[in-house]
Design goal:
The protein is mostly beta strands. The protein is built from no helices and nine strands. Strand 3 and strand 4 form a beta hairpin. The model has no long low-confidence stretch (mean pLDDT about 90).
Length: about 100
């Protein structure tokens, strides 16, 4: 499948890609054959959904669960504090940090 080379898959079972570069607002990115564009700037290390994750479903990175979806996450969505609750760090400890 066609995937932008800026998206890094860390482990075959991961539900997210990790950005190895930046994405500018309005830029189109291919995520496993799906064209996606973002309204905001996304920086190095941000996560993009490789697979859809239902609300309450686990988000997998490095082959391990890193948190749960607080809402349905579609393939190609930006995965961050607005739709992910960490299983390890309380969200209130992350507020105000990007």
């Amino acid at each position: 499948m066609l995937t932008d080379p800026r998206l890094l898959l860390l482990s075959p079972g991961d539900t997210v890609f990790v950005l190895r570069d930046q994405i500018e607002p309005g830029e189109t990115v291919w995520v496993e054959g799906i064209a996606v564009s973002f309204a905001e700037h996304l920086g190095l290390g941000h996560k993009i959904a490789r697979l859809a994750v239902p609300e309450g479903g686990q988000v997998i990175k490095y082959g391990a669960p890193i948190g749960r979806a607080t809402q349905t996450i579609a393939s190609g969505d930006h995965v961050h504090l607005h739709n992910l609750r960490s299983d390890y760090t309380p969200t209130y400890a992350l507020e105000g940090k990007a």
